[in-house]
Amino acid sequence: MEQRRPARSRKIRLARRIRRLRRPAFPGAVGRVARRRPKGYDRLLPVLARQWPTLRPTAEPPTGSLLRQRLAALGRPAGRNAIALCVVLGAVYAGGVIRFAGIRPVDDTMPAAALDFIREANLQGNVLNHYGFGGFLIKAGIKTFIDGRGELYGGDFIKRYVEIVNARGARPLEETLDEFRIDWTLLQKDQAANKILAHLPNWKRVYGDDTAVIFVRQR
User: Fold this and answer.
1) pLDDT, tens digit, 9 for 90 and up, residues 208-218
2) Residue 189 placed within a domain
3) Are residues 114 and 20 in the same domain?
4) pLDDT tens digits for 172-192?
5) Which residues of 36-56 are buried (b: 16+ CB within 10 A; e: fewer)?
6) For the chain, how many structural domains are there in total?
7) Mean pLDDT to the nearest integer, 62-76
8) Which of 7, 105, 185, 217 has its CA 20 to 30 A from that of 205?
9) Span 129-151, mean pLDDT?
C-alpha cells in the first residue's frame, strides 16, 4: 500500500489558496505571472504573499512595530465611526468658514430689504413665498409656504408650487390663494404670479425692488 505523503507546509497550502483566486490583486506583473505560469511558479507565490499581504485570501492581522501596524490600518477601508467623524468635522469646518469668513449669498438673491419691510409693516398670516426665500424667512421666524427642505413637502406639492408661481395651474390663481388662505406674497420680481396679483381685486402691491415683490390681501 502506498504511504500517505506528509502534510504540506503552510507555505504550500497558502500557495494553493492563492492559485484559486480568480483575479490577482495586482493586474500588472503578478497577473502576467499568474497567466503564463512560468517555471518555479509554485515557489514564487509564497514569496509574493509575504511581500503583498493583500494577495492572501484571508488577511492576517499585521505584526511588527506599532508604527507598522498604524500604517497598515491606514490601508483598510474606513469604518462607520470614522466616516461619521469626518462628516461632523466637515460640517463644523464649513460652519466656521461661513460664520467667521464672511461668506454669504450674493446680494442680488437676498431679500434683505424686503425682510426689513416685513418687520416694519408687521405682516402677519400665511405667506406665499419664493422657494429660494424660504431659508431667510425661517431665520426671521416666519412660517414658510415652501423652502429648501423639499423632502418634507414631496414632489407633488413642489410641482404645484411651480405651477402657482408661474401661473400655469389648472385653477385660477385667486382660487388657489383662497384655498391656502394666503394673506401676503413674497416672490421674485419677474415671476408671472406677480402680474396676475397686480390685477386681482383685494390685492395690493406694497413693496418692490430688484430682488423681491410683496403683495398683501386687503381685508
Assistant:
1) 999 999 999 99
2) yes
3) no
4) 999 999 999 999 999 999 999
5) eeeeeeeeebbebbeeeeebb
6) 2
7) 64
8) 105
9) 93
Residue labelled with grid coordinates 422657494: 131
Task: State the sign of the Cα–Cα–Cα–Cα dihedral 76, 80, 81, 86.
Answer: positive
Shared domain check, 146 and 46 = no
pLDDT in tens, 46-60: 655 555 555 555 555
Residue 194 is which amino acid?
A: N
**Rounded to 5 degrees, what are φ and ψ at 186?**
-140, 95
| Residue 55 grid cell | 494577495
Residues 52 and 128 in one domain: no
Range of the domain at 49: 10-60
Cell numbers standing for residue 192? 408671472
Q: Where are the alpha helices (DSSP H) in the chain?
A: 10-19, 29-36, 41-51, 66-74, 80-100, 112-121, 134-139, 150-153, 155-165, 173-179, 192-197
